[in-house]
Amino acid sequence: MTRLLSPAGSRVLFLGNEAIARGALEAGVSVATGYPGTPSSEVIESLATVARGRNLYVEWSVNEKVALEVAAAASFAGLRSMAVMKQNGVNVASDFLLHLTASGTRGGLVLVSCEDPGALSSVNEGESRYFAGMLEMPLLEPADFQEAKDMTKWAFELSEAIGNVVMLRSVTRMSHASGNVICGKFPAKTRKAVFRCDGPIMDSQTGPMISTPVVAKHLLRQQKLKTVQALFEKSPFNCYTGPARPDLLLVTASACSLYAAEAVEMLGLQKRVGILKIGTTWPLPPRLVSGHLRKAGKILIVEEVMAFLEENVKVLAAGDPKLSKGKTFFGKYDGTLPFAGELNPDIVADALAKIFKIRRDALSPSYLEEARKTAAMLPPREQTFCAGCPHRASFWSIHNAIALDSREGFVCGDIGCYSMAALTPANGYWTMPTLHSMGSGTGLAGGFAKLAPFGFKKPVLTVCGDSTFYHAVIPALINAQHNRADVTFIVLDNQGTAMTGFQPHPGIEVNALKESVPAVDIAAVCRAIGAKVTVCDPFDLAATGAVLTDFLAEKGLLKVLILRQACALSPEKKGKKTFEMKVDEELCLGDACGCNRLCTRIFRCPALVWDRKKKKAAIDEVVCAGCGVCASICPQKAIVKTPVASAFASGG
Asked: According to the 3-state scheme, what is the secondary structure of 385-397?
């Protein structure tokens, strides 16, 4: 039995995302959807493992907007549902979310946003809390693992009580850390899906589920917020610890409440600092917050990343002249805490020390000096493509084709492992000068391609991954074809959503429930819109280079190259070598070759190393994935590949 189905009353060590999944099960969730994105992916993955036994439908949707739409359909039919994504995904879902908060919901619907302060696994650390304020929907933020489970369950109940979507926000340190959780009961009854649409337009339980009439629906949504505020005033997820009349009131939420508590203890300020931990961060419960603001003259707001809570606390205080008089607020706007990056107990402790004028040396000078000496001895560990990564081979060919073309072409980038091509020459051969959201590379390339009348002459290429193709690229690709954009479009098809854990996508013949489903072929889609399409194995450098050279020479049309090769870390390929690789030391000329150590300095696969004693290249057999590509780049043919008898057949 999976631990997600542990009996009521049992104490279980859950990942934060597993605690959220358990809370959803205890709430009686029927439909769970999402799009893979770190740190959110484990919520859907956990639910998928128990779906059949719990009469639960789980789906990896093509993108976050569709995930929310599928979840909303279940809610409209009276079922409890949830849509799970990371902070970037809320941006994608926001178009439908704007209408959903206006139309309202029926069965409890929870939008789970797992966010990434510090951008530990993201291209930005943007957050979604402002959507809660802008779209007027309740926002909940669990502060520990027990709350992650309990608050998720309550979020469904709250959603059902007000007839609207509720946002539950987690952060990386909550989603990907583990803690003990006491399990509750599962519901005894299951619901039947029934969708009524024959009632009055303003009746969200029986009428049509539409977001108009705009003003009337908007007023109704605001009335729901008044109900939410009243509930939040009494919520057990808001609590205060500390003296009755603190010298400073620390207002915080989410994982920052743990940082705050530790920082107060580190400085021995338990008798001087009171901590108001708010779990219901939007709309703020005004009486609760105001009551605590009156107790102290100094207030510090601790949160990640933006000053969402700080702004709302200040607005609340400004609305009552008696409440705001004589108050000093500390937080991000006055520079006490940073406006960017992840917080930790030391950062909060430094802020408290600054306010209280306490001298604090987190580390002794001698320790810092030794740490600096040690750090100087460590070899650099730069980001790079994995050994055997097909993207290294792809960008090697792309870079060389652009160089041979000699018109200073460039690649419009996208989000994925291949984003490293936007970094340094050592990692990605510096071919990708633009990098934004999923699918934006194709839209940008289409735009650049129409600038010829203004003197623009550089050839434009664009890349995306296979999962990204389905997620966001198709509209931009159709736009490029329709407008006759001269673009070379390259799909880096590594046959799975590799960056987040190899979750299936529409190009795979299996879904989240491990059921057989029809795959949607990328090449067929591209041919259907009229594009010229070629499929290659990126490990075949000669064939790939030839196609790219021809594509760059052809003008006035959309050309699609699909470079298909499974990720070296994929479950079906990991640890299975196609070739045994070695360096023939007699053929390797080292520094005398004239290639300037092309293999170890430029191609730079982690399995290719420089033997300082022999002054020749060598292969690290433990690291080597056996793809064989490096044999194609050595001008002396000193890198030798020998087929493995039981080699894993891979590629396109």
From this structure: CCCCCHHHHHHHH
CATH number of the 3-233 domain: 3.40.50.970
Cβ atoms within 10 Å, residue 200: 9
Note the pLDDT tens digit of each residue in 264-296. Answer: 999 999 999 999 999 999 999 999 999 999 999
Q: What is the pTM of this model?
A: 0.90
Pairwise CA distance, residues 610 & 612, whole Å: 6
Class of domain 390-564: alpha beta
- Reported as type and span, the H/E element at residue 301 is strand 298-302
| Residues forming beta bridges with residue 529, ordered by sequence position | none
Q: Look at residue 113 and give its three-state secondary structure.
A: strand
CA 588 to CA 594: how far, in whole Å?
A: 11
In degrees and rounded to multiples of 5, residue 584 shows phi and psi of -80, 105
Q: What is the pLDDT of residues 156-167, one digit of tens each?
A: 999 999 999 999
Neighbours of 640 (CB within 10 A): 16
What percent of the residues of the chain are helix, what percent strand, and what percent coil, each to the nearest 5?
40, 15, 45
Q: Is the dihedral of CA 207, 213, 219, 225 positive or negative?
A: positive
Q: Tokens for 544?
A: 């790939």
516 three-class SS: strand
| Cα three-residue angle 286-289-290, rounded to 5 degrees | 75
Distance from C-alpha of 539 to C-alpha of 651, rounded to nearest angstrom: 8
CB 561 within 8 A of CB 411: no
* Class for the domain spanning 239-356: alpha beta
Angle at the Cα of 262 from the Cα atoms of 312 and 338, rounded to 5 degrees: 45
